[in-house]
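Q: How would the structure tokens look for this protein?
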Amino acid sequence: MSRRADPARAAIVDIGSNSIRLVIYAVHGAAALPYFNEKVMAGLGRGLAETDELSEESVSAALAALRRFKAIVQGLGVNAVEVVATEAVRRASNGSAFALRAAMVLGQDLRILSGEDEGRLAAMGVLAGANNPSGLIGDLGGSSLELHPIGIDDAPAGETHLLGPLALSSNGAFSESKVRKAVAQSLSDSAQASFGYNRFYAVGGAWRALAKLHMDLQSYPLRVLNGYTLRAKDVRKTIKAVLASGDTPQLRSRLEAISSRRAPMAPYAAVVLDELIARTGVEQIIVSANGLREGVLRDMLSARTSDPLLDGAVAYARLNKDQQAFSEQLYTFVSPALVPEPDLFGSLDADERIDRAACLMADSGGLFHPDHRAPMAFDSVLRAPFAAVTHTERCFIAHAVGTRYARGFHLPEPFRDLIDQTQRLRARRLGACMRLGAVFSGRSAEILKHASLERSRTSLTLHVDARSEAMVSRTVRRRLAQAAENFSLQPDVEID
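A: Here is the predicted structure in token form.
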């Protein structure tokens, strides 16, 4: 199983109602790692409800941003570029005229997406960033909210509602009662809001700001938004804090510290989310850093059938062909020692997937200073820009990689609540076996093919082909003993 190690670059320009953003991705199979990311708050949707037009001020700001983005794309030699525009441009009476001016600046046409297209592409983006997602996606932009099902065959068709903060704020200063009434009226006949989903995937910068506030209020240790999962009742507590921030200077300052530009819009986003939670009855809110742009990218490059987590590990660790081969052989080596085990991540297939990801990252700390490899590798893996992985799975992989580099590596205290005791034990066992495989083989896939592990009721046995007996050094025996200790077993070596 060989994965691409040489990335291709692709750029997405997203012309939204509030901001215009350029993201350049390094694409590796099903993984897309952001290489460059810049946004300009042009505010194309500001005042649109009153005038039905894009203001010349916002148009000028948007065109200036597009000139800069074109220069960056050309300077980096990116040839695969897609430009899309959303609610503000498709709704404005002068939206088509703006699109022509933008096309002249960029030297290529842009796609003005329908609401249906927005929902579909946002769903594709979530699909590219989550592992087998199932539920309702809510993509909140500056002007509109797209609701779209994912992973459920009989769910209603996608919907668009004019419930973005810019649309809701068009009637003057924020009034919770008025905003709540407008949201309730818009959602009153929504088939999506009454379908009965368990999970809600929150897409969009305004809702990411709410998630950041929740992390801040809870002193949550892992500040990675993608895959951050909250219970609905906890989200509603944060919503109450946002709605109280206008009268609470301390809360307002914390919100402004997270995003000064989004702070004025946060109460509108909070009310929309609160009404959705109440009407849908969802139990989990899952934050998705992926959305429309990643969906456009996936649509442009065609859907990839490989795993974004495993492809992302190859891309992030910059594994060459030999390193990939070693990582895959390492999984073959360690896996007999790890079964049978309890179901840790939802299924045995899910457990295998996470173990494989850890093996792909097992060589990621090789260039760090020897005195600091374990904590640096742990921290690097924990916060890597992986997709399709939960926070628990992140912590497990990082713990295993930290243990691979240091026998006495301990999971740092702030992160111990992210994985349970059974998962911590499994991570230590996996890390110790990876440590053994690496030292035995010198990180060579060809050499590791001549060894295998066997786990019995009493011992952990290293089987070695007679031709590779010289590889069984004193250090190898010591690492075997350390691995066996994690299983409470006796170490044994058999030359076959």
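The first strand starts at residue 8 and ends at 15.

Residues 1-6 have pLDDT under 50 and may be disordered.

Upvote if useful.
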